[in-house]
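> agent: user asked for a holo structure of the chain below bound to glutathione. Plan: (1) validate sequence alphabet, (2) canonicalize SMILES, (3) run complex prediction with ligand conditioning, (4) return tokens. Step 1... ok. Step 2... ok. Step 3 dispatched.
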Amino acid sequence: MIDLYTFGTPNGRKASITLEEVGLPYSVHTVHIGKDEQFAPEFLKISPNNKIPAIVDNDVPSEPISVFETGAMMIYLAEKTASPLLPTEPRARADVLQWLMWQMGGQGPMFGQANWFIGNQPDNEPAIERYVNESVRLLGVLDRRLADREYVANDYSLADIAIYAWHAGRIQSWMPAERPGQLEAFTNIARWQAACAARPAVVKGMAVPS
Ligand SMILES: N[C@@H](CCC(=O)N[C@@H](CS)C(=O)NCC(=O)O)C(=O)O
């Protein structure tokens, strides 16, 4: 059994959707980041960066294996189950990994900063301008990528899970009111988002922790 330490955030959902997709049984432990539970010494032993999510795999021959950082976690789970979410064929694998890293280094941090400044420093116009502009640029990149393929790396993969978890229901919450037209223009993203949202594993994973 795998222990999942998580909270109801985009990064947390990346882990729970992946666990649902690969079909491994797991037990959920809520780490309430609003109550600073991520700083508890026991949690820091498995997640030294004091962030959720983290997993502990007890279904291994010797000591349990703990993994923090969602990108590493998703790759670990896909490899453990030989899942097609991370293909072994080099070209397809590189495609999935580059878009997974695009999410880890680009979409996640930029959406996160835009959301944070709009929520916490609404008068900080330079910061909001910077992060919203960069987020919109990234949305354009994603929309163009999806123009001639169903999923980000052709077949549904870890990349879609990571990007979807951050995309779903988030953008509307921080995109400034004067920008709504831009969102509607991303028609390829809208089609892809609906396809991801319809997957039973995505529905279940998005609801964790219940
Ligand atoms: N790069 C990390 C980011 C994880 C992250 O930012 N988690 C947030 C919630 S979405 C968190 O735990 N924040 C609590 C804190 O920063 O103290 C990953 O992908 O796992």
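> agent: step 4 complete. Summary for user: The CA atoms of residues 3 and 73 lie 12 Å apart. The chain has two domains: 2-84+202-206, 90-199.
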